[in-house]
UniProtKB/TrEMBL annotation:
It comes from Natronorubrum halalkaliphilum. Keywords: ATP-binding, Kinase, Magnesium, Metal-binding, Nucleotide-binding, Pyruvate, Transferase. The keyword Phosphoprotein does not apply. The chain holds residues 469 to 779 of 779 of the full protein. Residues 1-14 are annotated as: Disordered. Catalyzes the phosphorylation of pyruvate to phosphoenolpyruvate. It comes from the Archaea. One of its GO terms (molecular function) is metal ion binding. This is Phosphoenolpyruvate synthase. Residues 12-301 form the PEP-utilising enzyme C-terminal domain. GO terms for biological process: gluconeogenesis.
Length: 311
């Protein structure tokens, strides 16, 4: 005789739990902003600029050549604005462009991209931005316009930073673009072992926050290509070496009043959430579909910590 399969249902309150650790959401395409805001997230922990640019189907240089600098800047302003509106006054952390050359190459105008043996170890993120300040200036001008329009919930985040020197150079370019680093909230991603080991200097250089990009931090710490199926079983975001780096960064940042956050995929994993809350991370940013589960995992972990402390 057949029995009906029992569907497992995890009891979960429909109400957003109150937590000391903020839970934010990652937004990769501006079109998802409304759905992301509906999760009740405390803000956007990562808004990637890539999609705004890759969806133009032209490299920035090609787009500018055909449409002019102002049109390019306006594309960025509109893309960010849609998300900043949806979340206002909740903060939206916007990451400056971080597309590797092999992704740019697929676009019209991509033939001009440099050929690289290892694009993931090459010309991307803040390295490219610092090397091409005249191009980077357009992104910074988009931020300046947004601030002028009153979007004080927009924050700037720099990808693939290695050390304080990168931060000082980025800060200089912000000032040159008419953005006062002391009046705005800005910070860096922790994606390389070098950045994790340099966070004290980065704090002294003035960052307001450090955000763990565990997709890259895992790739670079373990020397495991995040897109290589042959070593996929070695891609372990919870590897003790990664947790040691993360724990040390959180401690250093706390001493310097710098916020910490995670915006890599691992932020959606319960074990990582428990570890981070235990270490005292300021916020966790998860994918839209994972936000509610992370909110509850954070709540459970905070309650356990509280009970442990009074027992
Ligand atoms: C990361 O590296 O964890 C990250 C969030 O950035 P991306 O996945 O865009 O490289
Ligand atoms: Mg990354």
């Amino acid at each position: 005789e057949e029995t009906e399969p029992v569907e497992e249902v995890r009891p979960q309150s429909p109400v957003k739990p109150m937590t000391a650790t903020e839970v934010k959401v990652n937004v990769s395409i501006p079109e998802a902003a409304e759905r992301a805001a509906a999760t009740g997230a405390d803000g956007v922990g990562l808004l990637r600029m890539e999609h705004m640019i890759l969806s133009l189907n032209q490299t920035p240089a090609k787009f500018i050549q055909e449409n002019g600098e102002d049109a390019y800047i306006q594309e960025l302003v509109q893309g960010i604005r849609g998300v900043a509106d949806e979340f206002y006054p909740r903060p939206v952390r916007v990451r400056t462009l971080d597309a590797p050359t092999d992704e740019f190459r697929q676009l019209e105008g991509g033939d001009d991209e440099p050929t690289e043996h290892n694009p993931m170890l090459g010309y991307r993120g803040i390295r490219r931005s610092l090397d091409r300040p005249e191009v980077f200036a357009h992104e910074l001008e988009a931020f300046r316009r947004l601030f002028e329009m009153g979007y004080d919930n927009v924050e700037i985040m720099f990808p693939l930073v290695n050390d304080a020197e990168d931060i000082y150079r980025a800060k200089t370019l912000m000032k040159e673009a008419g953005i006062d680093p002391d009046k705005r909230k800005w910070g860096a991603m922790i994606e390389t072992p070098a950045s994790a080991l340099s966070v004290e200097g980065m704090a002294e250089a003035g960052i307001d926050f450090a955000s763990f990009g565990t997709n890259d931090l895992t790739q670079y710490t373990l020397a495991v290509d995040r897109n290589n199926e042959h070593v996929a079983d070695r891609f372990d975001e919870l590897h003790p070496s990664i947790l040691t780096l993360i724990g040390n960064v959180i401690e250093t940042c706390r001493e310097h009043d710098v916020e910490t956050s995670i915006c890599g995929q691992a932020g959606s994993k319960p074990e990582m959430v428990q570890f981070l809350v235990d270490e005292g991370v300021s916020s966790i940013s998860a994918n839209i579909d994972a936000v509610r589960d992370v909110q509850h995992e954070v709540k459970r972990t905070e309650q356990k910590l509280l009970l442990d402390s009074v027992r």
